Amino acid sequence: MKSSTEIYDFLSSIISAAPYGIIAVDMIGEVLLLNEQALRYLEIGHSPNEVIEKKLVDFLPHLPQLANVVNQCINFGRENFDVSETSPGRRHLTIRGRQILNGMILTIEDVTATKEVERATLNAMLDGQEKERRRWAQEIHDGIGPVLSSIKMNLDEVQEEVYAKSSPRYQDNFETAQELLKSVTRDLRSISHDLMPSALEDFGLVSALDSLCKKFQTGDGPALQFIVTGEIQRLNSSIELALYRAGQELLHNALKYAKATRISLQLIKHRDSIVLMVEDDGIGFNKNQFGADNGIGLKNIATRIQSTGGDFVLETEEAHGTMVIIEIPL
Ligand SMILES: Nc1ncnc2c1ncn2[C@@H]1O[C@H](COP(=O)(O)OP(=O)(O)O)[C@@H](O)[C@H]1O
Ligand SMILES: [Mg+2]
Hints:
It is found in: Cytoplasm. It contains 10 helices and 10 strands.
């Protein structure tokens, strides 16, 4: 029979060779065993000896979500957990907690590299989507636009003749054709603008969001406010596009669903980040209910913002309006 020290050393050497961070704690949450990887991934600036036999949660003030679930396991009988946490050093960690005899074992995996690949894939997809939108916008603008203009010119040219020489029925037909042409021209312009807002490329985010708000400000709709705080210069084009698309979707949502009396869109420049905040005083909704069958607008914004390294926070409650805060580091 080996001594308990020998067994302990044996276990320590096994876990020190593991590709994951590993920590075992006892029933009161004190660390029994851990490897260097765990300390490194969790950014605990202590040596193993300083942590052994101490309460694990005391070393996790910078990882509140993890501290919270560990605490629930130790004090409130929660059994297992899986959490994703981003460390202050911006590592993406997946942490699993499993109950074992007289305690629990945590495994910590650094998934930063996988996340980076996911982010790159998503970015490539969004880039492709934007390129396609741009192509369509150009196609409409350069291909269909001139044809419509030329139809209009031809109709205008014969207008006087038609009114002077033909029966009221033909005049009506002629007028209807002109009206339809006008309306299809307007629709196409609006579609091409939605596809690729020229104001964004030419004049930047502030100007593009401003014209977006003006476009939707109607006399009988909710009061729409656009507030800019700080000096906002031109930003990196992918950030401008991500924020514009977010503003566009959030404004559409507020107008479509919220039954709001006020909607505000704020753009705030901090020293090293930019914040877009869209708020309405409408009916709100239950965040937990919105899943796969409930539209993809918000989910797309969240992923897109996260792919630029930013944060997306949605706060809403039934009858208490909706607020989305997006912050992108510059
Ligand atoms: N500002 C808002 N006020 C009230 N409900 C909202 C608001 N924004 C979103 N919702 C609700 O959340 C759902 C999901 O929105 P979204 O992801 O944009 O998808 P979609 O617009 O395609 O339905 C909407 O169907 C709506 O029920
Ligand atoms: Mg939507």
